[in-house]
Amino acid sequence: MLKLLLIANIEIYLIFQHIDWNLKSPQMSSDVEMEDRDKEPAINIPSTSGHRSGRRDAVQDRKNAPWIEKFRPQTLDEVAAHTEIIDTIKRLTARLPHLLFYGPPGTGKTTTVLAIARQIYGSAMQNMVLELNASDDRGIDVVRQEIQDFASTKTIFSNKFKLIILDECDAMTRDAQMALRRVMEKYTRNARFCLICNYVSKLIPAVQSRCTRFRFKPLQEEFVRPRLQHVVEQEGVKLGPGGMEALIALGSGDMRRSLNILQSCHMAFEKVDADAVYLCTGHPMPRDIEEVVRLLFNASFNDAFEGILELQVNKGIALADIVREVHPFILCMGLPIKVKIALVEHLADCEHRLASGTNEKLQLGGMVGAFVKAREEVVKAAQ
């Protein structure tokens, strides 16, 4: 009986609660509708703040990017030097063969092939190009899986071939190169390969014969100087006396190296002059090398040995750097041929021994002794 009374009281309580809720619900529903109407504009009006922030981030990233990427040419017309190669490639763009670019680093090989890809595919470049650095992925599994999977598929909405770029392919194993040869033959209708390397002799002949080869030689000063001047003007770099000449000399035809040196000097010094360039790179100053050459050809054995040793200690110059920088002086001097041959041969032996970890003082003594003998030979030849 008590249970029935308790259940009845609970039902009555719930009924009154339901009535009270119905009496209040019109006002509450209207409040909810008002809140929804207040929120509707925020939902329906698209916000562009995300796009603006994305553009700002992209601009900021480009501003802070290394100069070798920031000023990388985007089209074939912007590529410095290699006029003959660029003109030939422009004519081959419609029916592009397999390409093999080889030559020293920093001469525009990767830049050229990326410009080709942009010219062919435009905005669809990301879907049509596979770029691999063969120094990292150089095994046969990469050729059989990643490269073969990409080359074997064909795009639905485009009749263009795909482009596979293998950078530093001279680091690939021999088995990987053998597998690559078969992939290049089998999927020629769907894909084209562009191989980039520094040493073409490390590629097997079967791969070389399937490509049209182009050699990129070191850039000449007439092409390096305008590009560096453009970067200097764009970045507001203050050039000092001899700064541009030092950048070109230390770059040795490598545009990437010259730009890296320029950016490093700009960050470390207020003015980029010759002294700043040599200090930033750790190369010995030209005047120090001239002093070494003067001692070697004019001072006695003891004076030359002590003078060069003191210069090494005070300026922090390694003997290997001295050997490398003295070599051009010997070739430019008017010495007898036999004397030149003997000196160059000794410098080569000295550099080889230094690379093997021998004592620097012993090698310095041997080098000074070789120059003393060379002076005696010059005197005998003059008599």
What is this entry, summarized?
This protein has 383 residues and is of the alpha/beta class. The chain contains 18 helices and five strands.
Question: Keywords, please?
Answer:
383 residues, alpha/beta, Rossmann fold, Helicase, Ruva Protein, domain 3, Zinc Finger, Delta Prime, domain 3, 5-stranded parallel sheet, 18 helices, elongated, disordered N terminus
Number of domains: 3
**If classified by CATH, what would the architecture of the largest domain be?**
3-Layer(aba) Sandwich
Taking all Cα atoms into account, the compactness measure Rg is: 35 Å
Globally, the shape reads elongated
Strand content: 5-15%
Query: Poorly predicted ranges (pLDDT <50, ≥5 residues)?
Result: 1-49
Assigned CATH superfamily of the largest domain? P-loop containing nucleotide triphosphate hydrolases
Q: If you average the pLDDT, what whole number results?
A: 82
Cα separation of the termini: 144 Å
Based on secondary structure, the structural category is: alpha/beta
* Largest sheet properties: 5 strands, parallel
Oligomer: single chain
Number of helical runs?
18
DSSP summary, beta strand count: 5
CATH topology of the largest domain: Rossmann fold
What order do the SSEs take from the amino end to the carboxyl end, as H and E? HHHHEHHEHEHEHEHHHHHHHHH
CATH class of the largest domain: Alpha Beta
Strand order of the largest sheet: 2-3-4-1-5
Q: Could you estimate the helical fraction of the residues in percent?
A: 55-70%
